[in-house]
Amino acid sequence: MDQNNFLLKGGVMRGNILDFSIQENTGYISGDDGKRYTFIGREWKENAAPKKGDIVDFEADLSGNVLKIYKISSYGGALKVEAAAINDAYRKQLEIEVKYGMIAWFKKCMRNYANFSGRARRSEFWYFSLMTFLIELIPSIIISFIAYLIVDNNKDLFFNYVYYYDFGASDIYQMFGISALGAFLACWMCSIICGFIFLIPSFAVTVRRLHDIGRSGWWSLLIILTYIFSFVPFGKLFVCFPIYILFFVWACTDTKKQANQWGLPAK
């Protein structure tokens, strides 16, 4: 990666203190360019001794020697103004989201179609889940109802099919005719298309919901196990069901109020 991408105005680099030994009067800085730098105490320009985790900027010559190290918070007036502006925009966004309904949350998730960073509150997750469920369900109900009206015989049997999906396509054609088969295929295609459209944003909002309660998004990969073990004897009972319960509890858990590595609280 090009080191120039990490240079601040005036040729100063930014990084954070990894360690500092008072006895040896030396320390280490992890630079934003991905490199590690060694420095000596006389280049530290603050009164208080450097501490692990301090955010600093510094100069580095071509030999990698670190010069003139400053703790950002000790002089960073511009940075404080920038942080205040970010916090102000964040608060305004939260005030707007308080008024969100199901449609607004759905639109936000679709705008963040493949955004796996950041955090999502409970309202965002549940309203999006409800909206996608309705989008998949309502067309299927309408198509099935129309097919029911035009089926000439075995209406009670067709009603049982609509609710339990006990039959395959060939059975439907033989028992109910081409109209019912067309309705079945239309419902099936609607479900497949919606599944593809909402797969990525559903996965993304799940990851952001996990971030909001302080958990890694990698936990969402457990969902894949539910598809695998659903075909294994007793897999649904001993694997899928516990995973469903776990994710339900996590999805219902309130926002962690502290900022974390994935950003500020979602509410």
TrEMBL record:
Q: Which domain of life is it from?
A: Bacteria
Q: What is this protein called?
A: DUF805 domain-containing protein
Chain ranges passing through the membrane: 125-151, 171-200, 221-251
Q: Which GO terms describe its cellular component?
A: plasma membrane
What does the UniProt keyword field contain? Answer: Membrane, Transmembrane, Transmembrane helix
